[in-house]
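Quick illustration, no need to memorize.
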Amino acid sequence: MAKKPFSVRVEGNVVKRFKALATVKNIDSATMLSEMLTNEEGKLNEEEHKAFLQLMNIWKED
């Protein structure tokens, strides 16, 4: 799948923490974000997971 630019406005200290973690783990930012999302998805309860899947279905690319 083609990568698309993605930006989020966050405080400067959040950017520094993110960059530091990516550097310490020796992974690129896209990989780290993907790992963080996967980790958070795994923490969803049944109701949240159902809502998540519904949203993913609505927002899927054609």
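The chain has three helices and no strands.
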